[in-house]
Design a protein that fits this description.
single chain, about 90 residues, mainly alpha, 3 helices
Length: about 90
């Protein structure tokens, strides 16, 4: 699960330091992603129920993303995640 999924932040970051700010934000996303994935893997092992943890995390993620980015961007993100995992 180690890839960064491409997101369109062009309408979120608009200034002269866009490249620098995007790089800093990308590093933040990677740090948070890795931390959350490690936590979820550990929680799945502790509960001995990967499906329940995946459903709960997926529900939270898709609902929150839809609120923050809209339906189309959320569907694109989820589709990219599915493609990434099936290619590994």
């Amino acid at each position: 699960m180690g890839q960064v999924v491409k997101l369109n932040f062009s309408n979120k970051i608009e200034n002269e330091n866009m490249d620098y700010e995007f790089k800093v934000y990308e590093e933040k996303l990677i740090r948070i992603r890795d931390s959350i994935e490690n936590y979820l893997c550990q929680f799945s092992a502790n509960e001995n129920d990967e499906l329940a943890v995946a459903l709960a995390a997926g529900r939270y993620a898709t609902m929150k993303l839809a609120q923050l980015t809209g339906e189309a961007e959320t569907k694109n993100f989820v589709h990219d995640c599915i493609k990434t995992t099936l290619n590994n």
